[in-house]
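To the team - zinc ion complex, inputs and output below.
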Amino acid sequence: MTLIDPELLAILACPACAERPPLEQRGEFLICRACQRAYPIRDEIPVLLVEEALPLDALQGNSEPNETGKSQR
Ligand SMILES: [Zn+2]
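Output:
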């Protein structure tokens, strides 16, 4: 799986949210908790386009079930 550089992740922001909340990697997606969108990562490049985003619901059951307990920071 592609791991996005944490320093890169830190400067990325959801294009759909005016407050630009931090994104979080989950599998091959970057997710925005604020608007519940999942942005795909293609060829190690996060695709931060609202048109390309999936609803977070669409990822459930598709990837790992344990999403809360990970120590991200
Ligand atoms: Zn958002």
